[in-house]
Amino acid sequence: MKSVKLIEEKIFKLRAGGSKFSLEPMQNFARLAGNPQNSYKIAHIAGTNGKGSTCAFIEGILRALGLRVGMFTSPHLLKINERVQINRQNISDADFIDIFESLDALANSVKKDAPRLAPTFFEYITTLAFEHFKRKRVDFAVVEVGLGGRLDATNIVRPDICAITSIGFDHMQFLGETLPEIAAEKAGIIKENTPVACGILPDEAMRVIEKTAREKNAPLFKLEDYFTKNPVFDTSMQAHYQNKNAALAFLICEILGGMGKIKFDEAAAKDAILSAQWAARWQKIPLKNGATLILDCSHNAEGAAELEKNLQTLAKNSGGQKPIIACGILGRERAVPLLKAASKYAKKIVFLVPKEDRALSFEELKECMPENGAPETENSEIKKLFPEKYLCQETNAGETIVCTGSCYLAGEVLARISGGERDGLQDVIKNPAKKP
Fold first, then answer.
1. Who contacts 272 (Cβ-Cβ below 8 Å, separation ≥6)?
2. How far lies 242's CA from each of 47, 234, 266, 305, in Å?
3. Are residues 221 and 132 in the same domain?
4. How far apart are CA 117 and CA 28, in angstroms?
5. Do 9 and 97 sit in the same domain of this protein?
6. pLDDT of 329-379, one tens digit each?
């Protein structure tokens, strides 16, 4: 069987081009592909944090209702196929290559006739997902925004519902320096006469969403109103923030039921929430010496606040025993709040450098530590920290190590401890000269 490795060289060349923040290339590419995204119902999900988990909960609920469900998310942890799933099964290598090669032929004609519209890595993968869902005749697709919303490649869809999970400071070089500016970019996914559901947002961000919804005549559903009538949901995912993501997913599906888009069943939805899984979000993995690894993807200021809450709970449940916290982070603006939160609860902080261009060096990580109350730090490598499968050399039986700071780090650690491979086919995000 053909392997995705056969086309890795092409994908790497695409990655080198970075990202374009314009819908025109994606609109053109999808049109040439026959606009496959118009062949099924869609839930379109944006937000600073919680997008992937919310998508997983929505997918689980829709599948529990008997639907065939596609899900497109990014980034991936180990293998690019993870981004394109149907009923939680990754796209096969054969299907991936078949669709990629057909799109490559289209892209070559674009490069020849209109070079400025040549599709990027993310536009290829987004179109590939849309085409796969069409070929496999999904009933519904759950589509996660890659970055922002307004100019994201996924924003060519005509959704049946859209949602904004959270709004915080991240990717400010693309989205703006203030919460209202960032909210305006996220609000770019709101469509005319299409319902939008929102998680718990800062007031100044919510005002922007409310204004956009009014202008688009889009019915707005706020989770904070929903929570006044319903309890927090129990989930199979252990991070406390997953309750809000689960509740938002439940609300989204309930709205779809009220619209007649699906046959909603409350009991089936709650059962689905209890069984939904999403890797590397405060995921507890037992190690063979009796220690515990917690894989986490907190990677920005909003995520740091949630990380601190989870570390508080961990401390309470362990009788005050402090974990080792291993951090690998992309960007100084992310490192400062994360290391501040981690320093309050860590016995020791181990610095790691993920294999990503934007990853901070050991020296840069050290510079981002708080001046007061900081624990001991140590520089290490993943292969040294985890010398063999399901073993961490820094921990003994009953102890915990938390790895956090980046999804890319989580993927590398997961590959190391499981004996798998990480393909490295991640998006390359290049800073623009100015915000588009």
1. 57, 60, 61, 63, 64
2. 14, 9, 18, 14
3. yes
4. 7
5. yes
6. 998 999 999 999 999 999 999 999 999 888 999 999 999 999 888 899 999
